[in-house]
Amino acid sequence: MIRFEQVNKKYHDKNALVNTNFHLKRGDMAFLTGHSGAGKSTLLKLIMLMERPSSGKVIVDRQDLSQLKRTQVPAHRRKIGLVFQNHQLLMDYSVFDNVALPLKISGYNERDSGRRVRAALDKVGLLDKERLLPQVLSSGEQQRVGIARAIVNKPKLILADEPTGNLDPALSTEIMRLFQQFNQVGVSVLIASHDLGLIQRLPHPVIQLDQGRISGPPSVMRQ
Amino acid sequence: MAFSKPQAAQNASRSQPENHSTRWLREHKEVVVSSWWQLWKTPFTNLLTWLTLAIALTLPTALLLLLSQAQHLGQQVNQSNHISLFLAPYVSLEQGQLITNKLVLRRDIAKATYISAEQALIDFKASSGLEDILTSLTENPIPATIIIEPAEAFLDSTAIAKLAQQLRQQEQIDQVLVDMAWLDRLQALLETSQRFTYSLAILLALGVLLVVGNTVRLQIESRKQEILVIKLVGGTDAYLRRPFLYAGFWAGLFAALIAGVILQLGTSYLQPSILLLAQSYQSDWQLKGLSWMGGLILVITSCGLSVLGASLTVGRQLRLIEPK
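Above: the input entities. Below: the structure tokens describing the complete assembly.
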């Protein structure tokens, strides 16, 4: 699903990623971990085409991203469900409208969109809160709205950047369980997290980044 | 839906996006409605923008309106071209009539009317309101006059100048007054006003572009977070651009409507004084307001300029906002 081949990313003089190689297979779920500044965000940004690599190849869903032009970036992003640490909800949109946003962009009509939004909200257990504004929700609920938005378009790949960063352990476990459920129906999932305690309790491979290099125990992920 | 596989497959056949043109139409309809509601989130700011635009539109439109009607008036006056001949004081009534009859025979003169000195004085008393002063005079200061209308084929300025020259050489004629000079002046004045108005219109059109561009820039700035999120979940440039182009359209529409109202109010305010002015020239000329056609052109121009102003800004401005 995701393949990095000899990827380097430099910002000015600083190396953010050095000779990175890894492969996340279709239907796999893995964690990406490391200290802040280790390159986790950079790696996710390269997948989302928020950045371009200085050298090397990033392939997502069999598509070499260096081949994509600026105008093709939106279509690429629509294939990926993205979950943020600070959830990035729009505060003047209702919960329903926040979740419906990717569908609206993809051109779904109201009827189909409504059905999918409610299914996604049902999945994260917030069906009864669709009319509320995000600011009246707890941070755990806000994060679940963010997750509903990421899955509403039925992406083949979910990327999450510190999805449990602001949550207490019980809520974090609950969020991770949600990701596992998506993974069980065939969605590939890559989660950047420094919550090592949580990660170690879960049976998924870990990609460890240290100063822009993949280090740590060799996992099935590494080539 | 959820992520159970069979159901997902089932859904896939039902909730596919529609075909391109119905989707395009529906999306535009949605944006028309949502951009309309967006307007009323900041009604005061929008009203200020619309008023600014309306003033920028009203000025050149009012001048163009006035100019087109003044030109019409100019043409009317042009058609009643005439030459006044003032006879020497020693010319008697009979002699004057004789001269008049001779003149009518000329090929280049259509009509010649003799006005005796007495008749001219009576006319002048009536129209000038200076009756008391004129009555107190012992001698009639006004000469006998012959008013000449040139024949149709000799109405151009060179023919009239030639005729005037020939008449001047006649001994009994004191003075020949051709109204060409002031007509030429009027034409030149109208021409100048026209050019002035066009330049003003271009400048103010540029003003409209800048005002709309700047408004849209501020709107984009205030919706930066929304734009970032939309970009991250895969919104295309066209999708992002659309609401701002429609915001421009609405601004243009409202500005044109306000400008129309200002023009009609202005017209009815000026009407009485213009009527008086026209009457003093024995004219029934009236200032007409904006016609339906004129109004339509105003709306189209205003909307066109505003959408152009928005589109010039929006592309560049959206490119500056990229998720980091």
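Note for the figure: Residues 237-280 of chain B form the longest helix (44 residues).
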